[in-house]
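=== RUN LOG ===
request id: a7f3
mode: sequence -> structure
chains: 1
length: 98
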Amino acid sequence: MFVGEVVGNVWGTRKHASLEGKRLFLVRPIDPVTEKPAGEAIMAVDGGVGAGPGSIVLVMDEGNSARTILKDKKAPVRAVICAVVDRVTAGGTVKRYA
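=== RESULT ===
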């Protein structure tokens, strides 16, 4: 699980049936306090939280847990956006996003 920033949309001419109606995004891991990039962007499915480009989100990056969030055990998914982050508190520092 990591905090990331939605940096783009992903489009496909064909989708697996379990992904119909779901939005796909590129999410780059970030340090939640400094907002500095912490890795390469990955594709993640919006788990119904209403994320969009520029959103700071919480990503479940483990296939079985991601499929559980989507309630579809056969979905070909590794990462799902499970929350939009409002704020992070770490080491006495509070970072607000909303």
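=== NOTES ===
The first strand starts at residue 2 and ends at 10.
The mean pLDDT is 91.
=== END ===
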